[in-house]
Every structure is written in C-alpha cells, then in structure tokens.
Amino acid sequence: MNGTSPATWPGPGRALVAILRGIAPEEVEATVAMLIEEGITTIEVPLNSPDPFRSIETAVASASGAALIGAGTVLTVEEVDRLAAVGGRLVVSPNTDAAVIEHSRRLGLVSMPGVFSPSEALLALRSGASGLKFFPASVLGPSGIAAIRAVLPPDTTVCAVGGVSETSFAGYAKAGVRAFGLGTNLYRPGDGIETVRSNARRIIAAYDAVFAGGEA
C-alpha cells in the first residue's frame, strides 16, 4: 500500500492506530513526534491512562495537524465533550453505545465503536459510526470478521483490535481487513522511545509488505 490508506479510512496515512495505553503526559510529545516521523499517524490515548486528557491535548499540539488524535475507552457523552474540548477528533470505544456514537458525530468527530456481533455492527452504523472496531479481534479471528463483513455495506471501515500483531496482518487481509489497532506490541508503559521506534518500524514494514500496491 506504500503508505497510503484505504479510501474509507478516516485518518491520514496508513490504517494503523497506535494505542498508547498507560502513557504518562511527559512522554507524549516525544512519542507522538516519533510515531508521526516513522509513519503512524492515527494515535489513541485510552482514558484509563494517567491524566489522559492532558496527554491528548499535548498530542494534538505536538501533531500540528499531521495526525488524527483521540481517546480510547470512551464510555460516556461527557467524555466525548471533554475530548472535543482538548482538540481530540477520534472517539474509540470498547462497546456500542448509540448515544456516544451519535454525540460524537454531532460534534464532527470520528467515531469508532467496538463491536463483536452483526447486531452491534449494524446498530453502530445506523447510529452514525465512522467505522467499526472489531474487538477482541483475536476471539473472532479473520474468519469470524469475514462472516460479519458479508452483511455490512461494502464500504464499511473495519478495524481489527485486540490480540493483533504484525504477524497476523496477512491473515486478516484475506478477510478484507486493512486497518489495525496496535497496543502492547507497539507500546508498553515504561518502554523507551527507541524501543517504541523499533516496534513501529517492524510493524510498518510488515504492513507495507502485506498491502504493497493496495492489494489485500
């Protein structure tokens, strides 16, 4: 895919989401700058991280418009409002909550709710989701996601999250999945910046090898 994203991917660049769960605010500026430099330009700070809204505000400032920045583990409308107030644009949830999805879209934010079944997936789309986060993807596997994708609109953005690593890109690609959320195999609390850089380069190389030329 040579660094470009599927047409329906809402963020810039590759359809890879860096999930920085547990990151401390003082780590954010350097980490975000490094990820953008390496080529990961969609970044999520889960709200069960230390002082997450401060981290998101720092990330937004550091990115200077070069990345889609937002929050994960968003469970309430109030958290959506707080995210918007600090400049975040991406709302990622582990569940399907119509009120959270609808409010996110009213504010012009990108909504990626978590789904696990056809009922949840279709409810999320009816509520205005920008895309679907299949979670935990490792339980459904490529075949489970492929079965659900068969009943979804063909242009639905599908992101596999949970137990996904660069070694599983090829398997998911065969099921038509081109977007992935990367957690502990990219970033763990306490990792040094060069460790995260090395992880990012390994993940990007694997992604580009699978999707080179746009072939899935």
Give a nutshell description of this structure.
Helix content is 42%, strand content 15%. It is an alpha/beta fold.
Radius of gyration: 16 Å
CATH superfamily: Aldolase class I
Alpha carbon gap, first and last residue: 9 Å
Average pLDDT taken over every residue? 93
Could you characterize the architecture of this molecule?
The chain has one domain (16-214): TIM Barrel (Alpha-Beta Barrel). It is built from eight helices and nine strands. It has helices at 25-38, 52-63, 77-85, 98-106, 118-126, 137-149, 169-174, 193-211; strands spanning 16-19, 42-46, 68-72, 90-92, 110-112, 114-115, 132-134, 158-161, 179-182. Strands 5-4-3-2-1-9-8-7-6 form a nine-stranded parallel beta sheet. Helix 2 (52-63) links the parallel strand 2 and strand 3. Helix 1 runs parallel beside helix 8 (193-211).
Protein topology:
Elements: E1 16-19, H1 25-38, E2 42-46, H2 52-63, E3 68-72, H3 77-85, E4 90-92, H4 98-106, E5 110-112, E6 114-115, H5 118-126, E7 132-134, H6 137-149, E8 158-161, H7 169-174, E9 179-182, H8 193-211
Parallel strand pairs: 1-2, 1-9, 2-3, 3-4, 4-5, 6-7, 7-8, 8-9
Helix pairs in contact: 1-2, 1-8
